[in-house]
């Protein structure tokens, strides 16, 4: 079995704890207009690597996994290739290598990874599934279910909110997230990170001959990020910045 990868390299602290070997997997089940890796959206593309080769690469990289580091899979969307990911993680855990994923949480099979997963980073882009569907192409009810499953299974969980003007960047939206997270009872096991909109993917869209539909309205002021952060902290949620 192979994993189809369009980018790989090391990154410190932003894709899980410590220094990590990060693989970007090809293919995504959403169409977020602010995506910073549009080259990873199509199912076709990237390069196929046999699982055995990737495990061997991770083992050779072990000396680089300082401060609790390891291997992180991101995308695209990791769960699009979930069977290969399961095989890869089993190989990594047999070598006692720390594992993490970054996911949108839409796969009903996500919990199949929990047994070999040390750190789960999950996007929660909106508290309203209908709004989520309108903007990204799919509702996110399954994401809420997977957050609950992670909480119930004691998985180390980091929730990320990409804060986008005109989509989820107001105090009303902060209230919506609080109400959702209260229902999911995440306080004891999860951290939350607010990620302000950026244009890192803009030039990539142009190179790929794609239209970049985001406008200046998407930008979020530092003041609004601070207000949303303060509101979430007011209700006892742990906010982090990586």
UniProtKB/TrEMBL annotation:
<keyword id="KW-0408">Iron</keyword>
<keyword id="KW-0479">Metal-binding</keyword>
<dbReference type="GO" id="GO:0046872">
    <property type="term" value="F:metal ion binding"/>
</dbReference>
<feature type="domain" description="Radical SAM core">
    <location>
        <begin position="14"/>
        <end position="238"/>
    </location>
</feature>
<dbReference type="InterPro" id="IPR013785">
    <property type="entry name" value="Aldolase_TIM"/>
</dbReference>
<keyword id="KW-0411">Iron-sulfur</keyword>
<dbReference type="InterPro" id="IPR034457">
    <property type="entry name" value="Organic_radical-activating"/>
</dbReference>
<dbReference type="GO" id="GO:0051539">
    <property type="term" value="F:4 iron, 4 sulfur cluster binding"/>
</dbReference>
<protein>
    <submittedName>
        <fullName>Radical SAM protein</fullName>
    </submittedName>
</protein>
<dbReference type="GO" id="GO:0003824">
    <property type="term" value="F:catalytic activity"/>
</dbReference>
<dbReference type="InterPro" id="IPR058240">
    <property type="entry name" value="rSAM_sf"/>
</dbReference>
<keyword id="KW-0949">S-adenosyl-L-methionine</keyword>
<dbReference type="Pfam" id="PF04055">
    <property type="entry name" value="Radical_SAM"/>
</dbReference>
<keyword id="KW-0004">4Fe-4S</keyword>
<dbReference type="InterPro" id="IPR007197">
    <property type="entry name" value="rSAM"/>
</dbReference>
């Amino acid at each position: 079995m192979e994993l189809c990868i369009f980018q790989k390299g090391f990154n410190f602290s932003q894709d899980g704890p410590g220094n990590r070997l990060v693989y970007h997997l090809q293919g995504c089940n959403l169409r977020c207009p602010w995506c910073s890796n549009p080259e990873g959206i199509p199912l076709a593309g990237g390069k196929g690597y046999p699982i055995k080769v990737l495990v061997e690469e991770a083992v050779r990289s072990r000396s680089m996994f300082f401060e609790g580091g390891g291997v992180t899979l991101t995308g695209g969307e990791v769960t699009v290739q979930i069977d290969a990911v399961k095989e890869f993680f089993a190989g990594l855990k047999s070598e006692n290598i720390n594992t993490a994923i970054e996911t949108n949480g839409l796969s009903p099979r996500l919990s199949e990874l929990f047994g070999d997963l040390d750190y789960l980073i999950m996007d929660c882009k909106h508290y309203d599934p209908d709004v989520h569907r309108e903007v990204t192409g799919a509702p996110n009810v399954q994401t809420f279910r997977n957050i609950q499953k992670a909480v119930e299974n004691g998985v180390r969980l980091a929730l990320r909110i990409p804060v986008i003007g005109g989509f989820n960047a107001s105090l009303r939206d902060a209230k919506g997230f609080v109400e959702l997270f209260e229902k999911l009872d995440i306080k004891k096991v999860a951290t939350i990170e607010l990620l302000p909109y950026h244009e890192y993917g803009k030039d990539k869209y142009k190179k790929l001959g794609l239209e970049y539909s985001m406008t200046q309205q998407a930008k979020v002021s530092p003041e609004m990020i601070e207000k949303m952060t303060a509101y979430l902290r007011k209700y006892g949620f742990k906010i982090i910045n990586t």
